[in-house]
Amino acid sequence: MHFPDGVFVAAGPARSLFAPLPRPTDADVAWICDRVVRRVLAHLAADADGRDHELDTDTALLAESVRPTPRAPSASPTPPHRRHLTASIDGFTLHADTDVGAADRPALERLVRYGARPPFAHQRLARTRAGKIAYRLRRPWSGGQTEIVLEPVALLRRLAALIPPPRQHQLRYHGVFAGRAAGRAAIAQLVPPPASPRASAHHRPARPATGSPPPPRLAARRLPWAELFRRAFREDLLVCPRCDGPVEIIAALVDPDPTRRVLDHLGLAADPIPIAPARAPPQHDLWPGGGEFDFADAPA
Fold first, then answer.
1. What backbone phi and psi angles, to 5 degrees, belong to 65?
2. Beta-strand pair 6-10/125-127
3. How many Å apart are CA 158 and CA 57, to the nearest integer?
4. Which of the listed ranges 10-14, 62-66, 147-151, 176-180 does the model predict with the highest average pLDDT?
5. Burial environment of residue 33 by CB neighbours within 10 A (0 to 12, 13 to 18, 19 or more)
6. Beta strands in the chain (DSSP E)
7. Alpha-carbon distance 76 to 155, whole Å?
8. pLDDT surpasses 60 at 53
9. CA 156 – CA 199 distance, rounded (Å)
10. Averaged over 275-287, what is the pLDDT?
11. Cβ-contact 228, 235 below 8 angstroms
12. Close Cβ partners of 20 (under 8 Å, ≥ 6 residues apart)
């Protein structure tokens, strides 16, 4: 979750100002974490209401993903490392020591890359002689544990909990950032117009009825495909790898016969890659014996 470092204050009709707040202290972070813990536990207690509900598949996977892993016998406890603006209470952790400036685009890109990182690193994953899966931790835990050892099916259950449910938004905005917030139009006035003069006709502001100038609107901006490829794979396709000069289009081949002759001359495949026919996902292959999976019969 991400929060602004301040609040929006109404400064007139359809106009708002951003008032930055002072940097929080360790006591503030601990107080917020404690309040969140008490509210979440109270909500769970009220929702349970002393009844034994039968868990569905998604809830069972989530419960399995947060179940503590068994500690290694040789793990020796280490003193916990206290971090600045970080609080940890009853398994809940609040970290408030990372901030991104409004104009700090590289820091924003690093934050987005951190949020889009995969759930685990492949190079730290290995199979033991007993047939289990061992994952080497980047840093030892407070209990001294340096790796996690799980059965293959148990690992799949924990990874399955990370798959988002279908047809549900994974990015949600709250408060004034919500799509139908009452003050969203006033907040949009604070966004500076883009440097590019190009604007989409769909986002072009309508002519006002009075003589007042129209409010600034954001232009529809789309990153070129080459820039997206460079950000994702760190490869610039528009720069020649031999001379480091810009790549230019010499010719565009449309006719299939000349295209095939050029590809054959360059030693490239001229026939399209065959596409396998669609099939149902092999869910029954994940569980021993096939059929529906019963969590009660799964190995610990």
1. -70, -25
2. unpaired
3. 12
4. 147-151
5. buried
6. 6-10, 16-20, 86-89, 92-95, 125-127, 133-136, 147-150
7. 24
8. yes
9. 47
10. 64
11. no
12. 5, 6
Find the Cα–Cα–Cα–Cα dihedral 153, 159, 164, 170, rounded to 10°: 170
d(C-alpha 144, C-alpha 80), whole Å: 10
148 by Cβ neighbours in 10 Å (0-12 / 13-18 / 19+) ranks as buried
Q: Which two tokens stand for residue 224?
A: 């070129």
Structure tokens at 106: 């590289």
DSSP string for residues in 41-79? HHHHHHHHTT--PPP-HHHHHHHHHTSPPPPPTT----P
Smallest CA-to-CA distance from 194 within 227, 179, 225, 216 is with 216
Residues paired with residue 239 on neighbouring β-strands, in sequence order: 246
Backbone angles phi, psi at 82, to 5 degrees: -85, 125
Instruction: Give me the helix-helix angle, 57-65 and 152-160, nearest 10°.
Output: 110
Q: Where are the beta strands (DSSP E) in 155-248?
A: none
Q: What is the pLDDT averaged over residues 31-41?
A: 92
Q: Tokens 């598949």 label which residue?
A: 57
How many whole angstroms separate alpha carbon 96 and alpha carbon 5? Answer: 11
Q: Which tokens is 66 given?
A: 């947060």
Q: For position 128, what pLDDT does the model report?
A: 92
Which residue in 243, 239, 238, 241 sits closest to 224, CA to CA?
238
Question: For residues 28 and 35, what is the distance between their CA atoms, to the nearest angstrom?
Answer: 11
Distance from the first to the final alpha carbon of the chain: 32
